[in-house]
TrEMBL record:
Name of the protein in its database record: Alpha-glucosidase
Keywords for this protein: Glycosidase, Hydrolase
Biological-process GO terms, alphabetical: oligosaccharide catabolic process
Family: Belongs to the glycosyl hydrolase 13 family.
Gene Ontology MF: a single term: alpha-amylase activity
SMART domains reported in the protein's UniProt record: Aamy
Phylogenetic lineage: Bacteria, Bacillati, Bacillota, Clostridia, Peptostreptococcales
Domain of life from the UniProt record: Bacteria
Keyword Isomerase (UniProt): no
Domain Glycosyl hydrolase family 13 catalytic: residue ranges: 14-407
InterPro entries assigned: GH (IPR017853), GH13_cat_dom (IPR006047), Glyco_hydro_b (IPR013780), O16G_dom_2 (IPR045857), SusG-like_C (IPR056300)
Length: 546
């Protein structure tokens, strides 16, 4: 039996501070802006906020390049604002997760500056410097943001490793002093009362660059057990690792409570199902829906009591789900947003909502590459232009997968810039803010916001949503996602039409029941005749079986 934890029935809301709310009209979201919106989040019913990085940073990768782990980014405010955010959130029963980016730092971090300034300083070994090989880079390792993962340090003639941008030098986890400094820093934030951490690309810290091993290196879990022991292990916090390469077997290594590593991980298997296998996220393919069900089914059933799932469609690196796998046309945007939310939130695990998802925000299409800001996308654009790709094709990839889709400012109301700021924001707003915004959502009892709110309260009121077993139904149905959740005598039947055509669903005879009650639907008049359902476009229903 799984020991119960507070984060088992929690719902997390991710804030990308730069784009959430600008309190002082300089075009950049900030901590005071977040504080002023806490009551909005309380209305939604979330328990935890995951804050994307707010530490001091030159913003080569919007804060994922940290120059000082114990200070706050100037544009976002001060440490006093941060302390206020913590106490204001805590007083509303909301915990704050910090984003822990410890695979790399900024090249403007004092550690890296020392490492470059003096080859004999102890900081040199905090990073990964290697001699040139035949006057060239040490090996073929590539950066996730295009090009080589090695950058020349002119001063010494050696190369340093950067799996992301060249302003994000990788830390060397083999170095014990460096690890100790990281643990001290984690304790600094724990002492401030944070509710936990989201660990950025944590699967990379066991890297063995000389063997070209990056993810899932041999000492990865030793480091995590050491981190747990030396920092958050004796605190009742939520820790979630970002692990792109995780399989259920690997996820159990991280999240089996007996192993004292993390509470849970983000797995990305479902997120890669619309790209050409073996190529990059930019190489687009239609979603394989049967595969999607298979992947969820695997994760829902295989962790069992030896680990815990996270549930998400969106984050600051991913396109908006309604544009991706729903339908963002005027007619179907709300219906399909609610359908996607229902399919995800009734599964077993801790759900994560990314800012704007709860009002059905969509992808954006800027005509000009000049309007984009994300380093990953801009590097890819440059590389593909140089390699002779057609500009139209590159833009198609950006529209479908670019990270800036998720990073345009939050839409608060129909006023200029969606009420995010009075001045031109750091990145343009999506022009559809006029319709899609918080104010409209709060006014309308059938809004996407209110659907999310109800999904959260169904989770809170029904243990079966939190702990029930998951059973996928009719796995080969080409349009319908249906499953049963079961705990003791409680049963829920979730059925959703993923597509725009009407679809029929026949319930298996093995499922016995005496009556049904509809807990939630995205249509007003859904049928209770569940033995044979005719689902309308994107119709999604939660039934309680009696
Ligand atoms: O993301 C890790 C990561 O691998 C992503 O950059 C991913 O490859 C890409 O966005 C989707 O293909 C984390 C952070 O979430 C991301 O924002 C950072 O840029 C990155 O780490 C470096 O810190
Ligand atoms: Ca501001």
């Amino acid at each position: 039996m799984l020991e119960k934890k507070w984060w088992h029935n929690s719902v997390v809301y991710q804030i990308y501070p730069r784009s959430f709310y600008d309190s002082n009209n300089d075009g950049i979201g900030d901590l005071k802006g977040i504080i002023s919106k806490l009551d909005y989040l309380r209305k939604l019913g979330i328990d935890v906020i995951w804050l994307s990085p707010v530490y001091k940073s030159p913003n080569d990768d919007n804060g994922y390049d940290i120059s000082d782990y114990r200070d706050i980014m100037d544009e976002f405010g001060t440490m006093e604002d941060m302390d206020n955010l913590l106490s204001e959130a805590n007083s509303r029963g909301i915990k704050i997760l910090m984003d822990l980016v410890v695979n790399h730092t900024s090249d403007e971090n004092i550690w890296f500056k020392n490492a470059v300034r003096d080859e004999n300083s102890k900081y040199r070994d905090y990073y990964v410097f290697r001699k040139a090989v035949d006057g060239k880079v040490p090996n073929d390792l590539g950066s996730i943001f295009s090009g080589s993962a090695w950058e020349l340090d002119e001063k010494s003639g050696e190369y340093y490793l950067h799996l992301f941008s060249k302003k994000q030098p990788d830390l060397n986890w083999e170095n014990e002093d460096m690890r100790n400094e990281v643990y001290d820093m984690i304790n600094f934030w724990l002492d401030k009362g944070v509710g936990g951490f989201r660990l950025d690309v944590i699967d990379l810290v066991g890297k063995q660059p000389d063997q070209c091993i990056t993810g899932n290196g041999p000492k990865l879990h030793d480091y995590l057990q050491e981190m747990n022991l030396r920092s958050f292990g004796n605190k009742d916090v939520l820790t979630v690792g970002e692990t792109w390469g995780a399989t259920p077997e690997i996820a159990k290594l991280y999240s089996n409570p007996n192993r004292n590593e993390l509470s849970m991980v983000f797995q990305f298997e479902h997120i890669s199902l619309d790209e050409i296998p073996g190529k990059s996220k930019w190489d687009l393919a239609p979603l394989d829906f049967i595969k999607l069900k298979e992947v969820f089914n695997k994760w829902q059933t295989e962790l069992s009591n030896d680990g815990w799932n996270s549930l998400f469609w969106n984050n600051h690196d991913l396109p908006r789900i309604v544009s991706r796998w729903g339908n963002d046309s005027k007619e179907y945007r709300e219906l399909s947003s609610k359908m996607l939310a229902t399919v995800l939130h009734m599964q077993k695990g801790t759900p994560y909502i990314y800012q704007g998802e709860e009002i059905g925000m969509t992808n954006v299409k800027f005509d000009s590459i000049e309007d984009y800001r994300d380093i990953e996308l801009l590097n890819m654009y440059k590389e593909r232009m140089e390699n002779g790709y057609q500009k139209d094709d590159i833009m198609k990839s950006i529209y479908a997968k670019g990270r800036d889709n998720a990073r345009t400012p939050m839409h608060w109301d129909g006023s200029i810039n969606g009420g995010f700021s009075n001045v031109a924001p750091w990145i343009k707003v999506n022009p559809n803010y006029v319709d899609i915004n918080v104010e409209n959502n709060l006014k309308d009892s059938d809004s996407v916001f209110n659907h999310y709110k109800q999904l959260i309260s169904i989770r809170k009121e029904n243990d079966v949503v939190v702990y029930g077993d998951f059973k996928l139904l009719d796995r080969n149905h080409k349009s319908i996602f249906a499953y049963i959740r079961e705990l003791n005598n409680e049963r829920l039947f979730i059925v959703a039409n993923f597509y725009v055509n009407n679809e029929e669903f026949i319930l298996g005879k093995d499922i016995k029941f005496e009556g049904v009650e509809i807990l939630l639907s995205n249509y007003k008049d859904s049928s209770e005749d569940i033995e044979k359902l005719n689902l309308r476009p994107y119709e999604a229903i939660i039934y309680k079986l009696k």
